[in-house]
Design a protein that fits this description.
- There is one protein chain.
- With 377 residues, the protein is of the alpha+beta class.
- Helices cover 36% and strands 26% of the residues.
- A 5-stranded mixed β-sheet has the order 15-14-13-16-17. A 4-stranded mixed β-sheet has the order 4-1-9-10. Strands 3-2-5-8 form a 4-stranded antiparallel β-sheet, with no helix packed on it.
- The chain is globular, with a radius of gyration of 23 Å.
Length: 377
């Protein structure tokens, strides 16, 4: 038998083996009353994060992708709320996430409420608890959003100049939402959904205690990792702690791994296009980025954005920011939770070995003096 035939057989077997190792996850959706012509998917696996825009026709959509491991699929129905004449804002609360294993066919049903999708998922049991909690919350959260967005419009039309205070007229709805979540955690401490809900907690002691009591067989590599990342965020408050890692794609869909920047000092800047102090600090940041070129890298993470990643790209280009920019998301993509950020801007300085040297809240001279001291300016 010739070497060419042997090579052909070998390549065929290799391709067959590769195909068998990759089973697609299929998504089939049918959302009643869905008002949008497309949805956006953000898919997170163990090794990859990517986004796809999928067309919707009469509430129906479908998508599939090859998968070797567990995947979290964030679905953004691209619902927007009217906040002023001719001005609309994406409703970030409308996003929901479904979970799949290789070979799953996820059938997503439900209907659009005012601003939310009250959804269902068939195809595996992983999503059951998430659907239960989401369905219990949906009426209260949708009512809360209606009140809050009506308040925004009232603020616009108000002749008194009264400042909008988010949630001031929807406290009872928020109380109901919090109660549903807390009750579920108490009643189902081993649920993956409870792990996800605890990930959002600001109580470090409670998260530690919760994580310690999870049986080994329930330590799912995705959901338990959420808790570990949350604990890493609490630890990020301490100088000398190892920085949490970020593996994702940036706002231009280029792959990004924070650990790839080892060997240089790194500034991780949590900011927002809506944050005046954040934006006002860009000239000084650009000056220091150039001053310590070759020694220093910067990474921006846009948080709490209401106008989407396209608006972030527009601001980044307008301000001529040359360093990498990420877009804060949810779950494993919630980097402000990962770093324990609760104010903006917040900047972390990380040394070449990946250890946190300092954390700076707000925009001020102390941060730049610290860079000069560390980098020898």
């Amino acid at each position: 038998m010739s070497h060419r035939i042997l090579l052909t057989i070998g390549l065929t077997l290799l391709l067959i083996g590769y195909a068998s190792a990759q089973k697609p996850i299929k998504i089939r959706g049918n959302i009643k009353e869905l008002s949008t012509a497309e949805i956006r998917l953000k898919i997170t696996t163990d090794k990859q994060v990517w986004e796809e825009t999928v067309p919707v026709k009469k509430g129906k959509f479908k998508y599939k992708f090859p998968a070797k491991d567990f995947a979290a699929i964030e679905i953004d129905p691209l619902i927007a709320a009217n906040i002023a004449p001719g001005k609309f804002e994406p409703v970030k609360e409308a996003l929901f996430t479904v979970y799949g294993e290789p070979g799953d066919v996820l059938k997503i049903g439900g209907e659009q409420l005012s601003y939310l999708i009250d959804y269902t998922v068939l195809g595996n049991s992983i999503n059951d608890d998430f659907v239960e909690v989401s369905s219990a919350i949906a009426p209260y959260l949708d009512e809360k959003l209606v009140i809050d967005y009506n308040d925004r419009l009232q603020e616009y039309y108000s002749s008194t100049g009264t400042m909008f205070q988010p949630g001031i007229n929807s406290t009872s709805q928020q109380s109901q939402i919090d109660k549903i979540k807390n009750d579920f955690i108490q009643q189902h401490p081993e649920s993956y959904c409870s792990m996800y809900l605890m990930f959002a907690s600001n109580d470090a002691e409670a998260v530690v205690q919760f994580a310690e009591n999870i049986p080994d067989q329930r330590k799912h590599p995705y959901f338990f990792n959420l808790l570990e990342r949350r604990l890493a965020g609490f630890a990020a408050e301490n100088e000398g702690a190892l920085s949490p890692n970020i593996i994702t794609s940036d706002i231009f869909q280029e792959s990004f791994n924070l650990e790839d920047l080892r060997g240089k000092y790194v500034v991780v800047d949590f900011w927002g296009t809506w944050c005046a102090p954040c934006v006002s600090g860009f000239p000084d940041m650009k000056k220091y980025y150039k001053k310590y070129e070759g020694q220093l890298e910067m990474v921006g993470i846009a948080c709490n954005e209401k106008r989407g990643v396209e608006h972030v790209i527009k601001v980044v280009n307008k301000k001529e920011l040359k360093w990498r920019q990420l877009y804060n998301g949810t779950g494993l993509n919630d980097y402000k939770a990962l770093f324990g950020v609760d104010a903006f801007p917040t900047k972390f300085v990380i040394d070449p070995e990946g250890k946190i040297l300092g954390k700076f809240r707000g925009e001020g001279e102390a941060f730049y003096r610290f860079l000069d001291e560390v980098l020898g300016g």
